[in-house]
Design brief:
Helix content: 40-55%
Largest sheet: 5 strands, mixed
Organism: Pseudomonas rustica
Protein name: IS66 family transposase
Pfam families: DDE_Tnp_IS66, DDE_Tnp_IS66_C, LZ_Tnp_IS66, zf-IS66
Strand order of the largest sheet: 7-6-5-8-9
Amino acid sequence: MNSSPNLDQLTAEQLRALAAQLLTQVDAMGKKIHRDQTVIEQLTHEIAWYKRHKFAKRSEQLSPDQGSLLDDLLDTDIAAIEAELKAVNPLATPAEPRQQPKRTPLPPQFPRTVIRHEPENTQCACGCQLQRIGEDVSEKLDYTPGVFTVEQHVRGKWACRHCETLIQAPVPAQVIDKGIPTAGLLAHVMVAKFADHLPLYRQEKIFGRAGLAIARSTLAQWVGQTGVQLQPLVDALREAVLAQRVIHADETPVQMLTPGEKKTHRAYVWAYSTTPFADLKAVVYDFSPSRAGEHARNFLGQWNGKLVCDDFAGYKASFEQGITEIGCMAHARRKFFDLHAANKSQLAEQALHAMGGLYEIERQARNMSDEDRWRIRQEKASPILDALHDWMLAQRDLVPNGSATAKALDYSLKRWVALTRYLEDGAVPIDNNQVENQIRPWALGRSNWLFAGSLRSGKRAAAIMSLIQSARMNGHDPYAYLKDVLTRLPTQRASEIGQLLPHQWVPA
């Protein structure tokens, strides 16, 4: 720590410089305090709002299962807000002190693994040998599919009889301080909820059959707190994806329920993925309350690369700001496929045959370098596309406006420039199938969890599913990945957080 300067020895010039420095520091500190107070007020208001709806009268239109889902989501959101509030102001005392319920001892029949923590050195600073005078025992609940086990942590107490010094090994850092779940149990709950799409009330029943029914409210608190802890990883993953010069984008609807309302409305999940040709394998989901294009612009920020997408109008403003549009040939092909399936159109069959030739070239170039892929596209794909374009223009003059055939032709002709840009760059894919495959877990999950309970819960699901799906893309078992990450995360340096990202993760 630097000592304070002797003001009497400073010149007028030095005093002015010191005063300017102090004013700058005071101004910066004032701005930080103002920001923190704003965040605290916002979070306090938000948590009060959630609690009001948690204890409000239930709508008769909600089924018992839907009511259970809503309870879980409210408890999870409240736990997440409390964790964020603690991070902003860790020294704050709760306005309303609440009585903590006494924790029920873990069942004695569960297998126990004793883990001992002792000081590295039992020599007192005064020179005497420390004497063991007791120990503290804490238990954490672990879970492997179908089996509960207990980790019993024994921390010996060592004291010096001469100077009465008392030492103990420190408490191992955990994602949830003073909680009973291990990283393994938390990983199982997260994977079951966000990868296997099992709502918490179903997990409660499964745990009950294994020997211990963990209350849904407790599971919800774990999910909320764990989601907050994992958010820095998701932020780092987003930065890694946006460092790519070519990415995919797509969106899918998800029903969202506003607590206190009697109906759901359509929200959207946006998916942003790396290409099949990129060294980085990752996908990031972004949950938004609508399909407005501003959500895509907010996510992309200052990114200015090549965006592979469909013809959704929400992206158009981004293209006006410098992002290069890359069309999806699969969408164009789908128009002709539907036309052929409906009435066996010979025109559609001809278009499909030509597009099939383009995809055959892509199969040949799949494992090539970007330069070689560009070269084969110029040699083989470019003539096919030129002929296809001339043929489409000729056919368009022969079909009536408004017909299904005209609509199929118009889709390709109006987007021809975007559809053929992949010829210019070997790193650009021919279609958007990569991200459409990555968005399927959301489509599979909708039938199980019915709705997102709030914007906060939707964003949390998007964040955690980003890590789980990215782990899958890199060939990792999501459970093994999350268990290791949640074990290492409490002690991981912020500067080394990238080591825990799915594409860089190496099991400890």
